[in-house]
Amino acid sequence: MYEPKIIGFLCNWCSYRGADTAGMARLKYPPNVKIVRVPCSGRISPELVLRSFREGADGVMVLGCHIGDCHYSTGNHRTAKRMPILKKLLEYTGIEPERLYINWVSAAEGEKFANVIHEFTETIRALPPITEVMK
Amino acid sequence: MTVRLTALHEAIDKVMPEVDGVIGVKSNPNGIVAPHLFLSSHPDDLAALAIWPKEPVPDTLKLIQRAHPEAKLAVVCRGCEERGLVEMAKHSQVDLSKVTLIGLACSQEEAEFCRCAKPYTVHAQMTVGERIEGVPDPLTDAFAAKSREEKLAFWKDQFEHCIKCYGCRSICPQCFCNVCTLEDEKWVETGRLPMPNPPMYHMIRAMHMTAKCVACRECEETCPADIPMAIHFRLIARDVKEMFNYETGAVIDQKPPQLLVLEEGEYERTGLPH
Prior knowledge:
The structure holds 2 protein chains of 2 kinds.
Chain A: E1 6-11, H1 15-24, E2 33-38, H2 46-54, E3 59-64, H3 75-93, E4 100-104, H4 110-125, H5 130-133
Parallel strand pairs in A: 1-2, 1-3, 3-4
Helix pairs in contact in A: 1-4
Chain B: H1 3-15, E1 21-27, E2 33-38, E3 49-50, H2 57-67, E4 73-77, H3 79-90, E5 99-104, H4 108-114, E6 126-128, H5 138-144, H6 148-159, H7 167-171, H8 200-208, H9 218-222, H10 230-244, H11 266-270
Helix pairs in contact in B: 5-10
């Protein structure tokens, strides 16, 4: 059994506040996720995700505001247009597309945040470590 | 002289009095075929007019327009080159309002060589040659049918030969940024060969070709290692068609989806959670 390493890119306005809410409610979630706070999920370029994988992350999650709730009006529209393509590209390159996870978590959804982390950690745990896949 | 070349000569002769010059392909005495600006002041040049191999004509137009923004030009373009020009115009790289497009239909052999789905022009003001239908792309279809492990092994084998010459980036009519991500040490390390895994260079390029690649296959043609990288671009182009209903070069005033916000019904097709 290995402990997967996961990088979580969380938007400052919704998902990072959601993680705060989960913490304040004393909700338990796996400690595998290393959280990186970003101004907007639209900031997450494919380069950042790919480099996370290259540096040995077993999974990358991008969490942002719900569509329509973005602090910058349409920042997360970029995420919603870019990330599905990146998932397809991972598939076409021979990397499991499940390693990249996109979801929307608002500041009030502490419970959803904990569930999302649980779910994704289990998905990644079922996959082999990326260092073995990328050998 | 083939029928198509004769017809192309006639089309150029017809358009020449109305424009300052015609961009086409010329075969030089040393056997090298290259893009050329045919001028009415040098009528002898036209004797060496060629049609094959295809050359990066869209980039030639861009360079000439940068130096002479007022010039009225005509361009001999194939289906892929026309798509390239349309996409470049959408990104303000060329100005098509002063350009006459002379469409050159590809022959069956040329289309099969390029595995081209659209070997004909759609926007050109005049066309030369018999229009043929697109041919299937066996290489991409065979790749799409592979399992994940086979895909990984396929690219590992292919990218092992990559010498990172940046030829595919430089020849691409859609790669025009002044500052290139692929030259940034953060994402692509200089001097590291073979390619690290995941192949950052090729994956970043594939991402940047989203809704931009016009399937002209110039990248594969120029590659000294014969890497069939257009497979990536063509598979993504199919997804872009499915998700965002966008085809490169098809409609002149349709903006690329990556520059716009989500539209009604688009989100549902991306497969993201609700």
